[in-house]
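Predicting holo structure, zinc ion bound.
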Amino acid sequence: MIRTMSSIAMLTALSLPAISQQHQATQEQIDRITRDAILIDTHDDVTSLTVEGYDIATPNAHGQTDLARMKGFLGAEFFAVYVGAEYVNGNHAANRALQMIDTVRTDVVAAHPNDFVFATTADDIVRAHKEHKIAALMGIEGGHAIEDSLRLLRDYYALGVRYMTLTHFNTNNWADSQGDVDDPKVTHHNGLTPFGKDVVREMNRLGMMVDVSHTADKTFWDALATSSAPIIASHSGCRAVSNYTRNMTDEMIKALADKGGVMQINFGCDFLSQRYYDAAKPAEAEIREKYMAAMKIEDPAAKSAAIEKLRAEFNAKVPPATLADVVAQIDHAVKIGGIDHVGIGTDFDGVGCVPPDLDSYNKFPALTKALLEKGYSADDIKKIYGGNLLRVMHAVEQRASELKSMPALHSDIAKK
Ligand SMILES: [Zn+2]
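Done. Tokens:
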């Protein structure tokens, strides 16, 4: 008994100086922790700009992602192969997906070989970090990109895609989305159809991570029950902190964690902050007409100035979320799911508002500092920034190797 007490006393005595040391961490120590952590962002939409000709090595004035701000602290980027719902109608979803894959391979990696290295495995990411390069990976956003064919899913894997978000804001032919869950005009499936479950199984067989961001809650539960490997939410948040249905309930976060998965925290202001979420919609409605008028201005400089003015007007009415909101989201997710099941999925260049004090990768030391002050250790931060995602990638790769002898699935519903 006495022995136990004295060891507790000893532990306390040992840990107290360590914590106070963290409080006083120098900028150099904070930078080192951030750099050593292998920061992995599982969702960045700058590809929607590069596919239109934007060079990532030039400043991205209105966005968050450019080479100058990625260099230094970002270890790996999952570039979004984002396929908008509008491509379904013209039957151009696969065409768009292939163009988005090409912009990552050609306009980002091949055009900047000294800075980026194409990566498809967890080991590739670690190797790139050692070589001081940014690992470039791809995740498809919107399951409609496979045009209801597992053959296309396999093609995307062969081209290097390592996760797929089962839906975007639109329900597809095999999975319900959160985005139109209340729309009576949409044919819903009550989660995943039998083919949708085969999509998940084929992703397991290939070694592609199953992503449940954007899906309806029932689709999440079906995907979790069907997958034989851990799954991810590539850019989501905690609904208990901001009651946006794109975020996940505590029950979902816990179940995802219990199965070894990871939820990656979205930096969009409405995902982060209830205050912002409540205030943004009415304020948007107020300036909508002015915005539509600004969008019609033909002179590019005048148009851009008008939009900037409206942005300032909007921000004055609805102050953006802050770094403190990111910390609150991370902290809640850790409390519910555990330190091994939380990560980073910024949604940079994909959302209209991000915290000004955490609006690109060069500002991550500020997040590191805030997490240290909150009592997180350097090891905890390492897990959140990338360690957890690396573990899930390894598990997904391991599961695929176990399923290697299984034949490819052929249950396509595509009839073209
Ligand atoms: Zn998204």
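Residues 141, 214, 235, 350 surround zinc ion (CB under 6 Å).
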